[in-house]
Design a protein that fits this description.
Layout (H helix, E strand, L loop, with lengths): L11 H7 L5 E7 L2 E7 L10 E2 L3 E6 L5 E5 L5 H6 L1 E2 L3 E4 L5 E5 L9 E6 L5 E5 L5 E4 L5 E5 L29 E4 L6 E5 L5 E5 L5 E5 L1 E2 L2 H6 L4 E2 L3 E6 L5 E5 L4 E5 L5 E6 L15 E4 L8 E4 L4 E2 L1
Parallel strand pairs: 3-6, 17-18
Antiparallel strand pairs: 1-2, 4-5, 5-7, 7-8, 9-10, 10-11, 11-12, 13-14, 14-15, 15-16, 19-20, 20-21, 21-22, 23-24, 24-25
């Protein structure tokens, strides 16, 4: 039975925008939509001498607990007086730390993105690596697809030529979605490759789609032609797969077999490929119909 999502679940993009600043956005109903208001008292002070690095992912579970993905990049000056916080930190709705987990020697290099699936498990990737990982809600490593430190390139390193083809490795994956109907795993792969890869719940390769696009394909809105970065993947309640084609300033929409349906353009007038891109993360409002889509990027927001 699919679990009901909490009131924060549809606004994690807003959280992600400001988590590194130590504040949270809460949603308030306004004309049927949502108004985001900064809560300056969220989160509570971190334990001990913890210092977080870049926050590269935020996700919310069915109990409105917020998980952040932390990076191991504290400065030398910070290290003199503080302690690097763990890779993954869980907060309750009031902003109190209730759990943390992850071993820096085990988690993906350059941690990136997170998803809480329909079984309340935590998924994450790494855009400096070739793996994704699944953890139980309390932080036990359940599954890893790929070998840490190896990527899908001509020589297995980050300096090699992208192959966009491996059934067991990725090339700097960025995001994960899990199908609540059958547990299939959809991976946005990513910063190096240019594809969506699908596995069954046991980690067996099923299919993939996508290729590195050209400027001409981006301008024409060709489906499956990604301009790098393939930055996010989300499965909607409508059963469609929404993919952030970041540098092409669009969200590409597919069915679960990879058949292209349509584009949702988020243009700001720049020539493609857009250096920063507009579609970084997307999320839906928590109502069953998912009336609103939220799109997060560096300097613009659209609903």
């Amino acid at each position: 039975m699919k679990k009901k999502m909490g009131r924060f679940a549809g606004i994690w993009l807003c959280i992600g925008l400001v988590a590194a600043l130590g504040i949270l956005c809460r949603a308030q109903a306004q004309d049927g939509g949502a108004k985001f208001v900064v809560d300056p008292n969220w989160p509570k002070p971190l334990p001990g001498k913890w210092v977080i690095g870049q926050v590269s992912g935020v996700c919310v579970d069915a109990q409105d607990h917020v998980f952040i993905v932390n990076r191991n990049d504290m400065t030398d000056k910070e290290a003199e007086v503080a302690q690097q916080a763990p890779p993954y930190i869980e907060f309750d709705p009031d902003g109190k730390v209730v759990n943390s987990f992850g071993d820096w020697k085990v988690v993906p290099n350059i941690t990136h993105g997170c998803t809480i699936d329909y079984e309340n498990n935590f998924w994450t990737a790494g855009n400096g690596d070739g793996i994704i990982q699944e953890y139980s809600h309390d932080g036990k490593l359940l599954m890893q697809i790929g070998e840490r430190g190896v990527v899908d390139t001509s020589d297995g390193t980050l300096k090699g030529r992208a192959l966009n083809s491996s059934h067991t490795q990725f090339y700097m994956p960025s995001d994960i979605a899990v199908d609540p109907l059958n547990g299939d795993i959809y991976v946005a792969d990513g910063y190096g490759n240019s594809r969506i890869v699908v596995f069954d719940r046991s980690g067996k390769f099923l299919r993939q789609w996508g290729h590195q696009g050209t400027k001409e394909e981006a301008d024409a809105g060709v489906g499956g032609a990604f301009m790098q970065v393939v930055h996010c993947v989300v499965i909607g309640n409508d059963g469609l797969v929404y993919v952030c084609d970041r540098q092409a300033d669009r969200i590409q929409v597919f069915d679960k077999m990879g058949n292209f349906k349509n584009n949702i353009w988020i243009k700001r007038g720049n020539s493609l490929p857009d250096n920063w891109g507009t579609t970084w993360w997307i999320g839906f409002s928590p109502d069953r119909e998912q009336k609103y889509m939220y799109v997060n990027l560096i300097d613009l927001e659209f609903t």
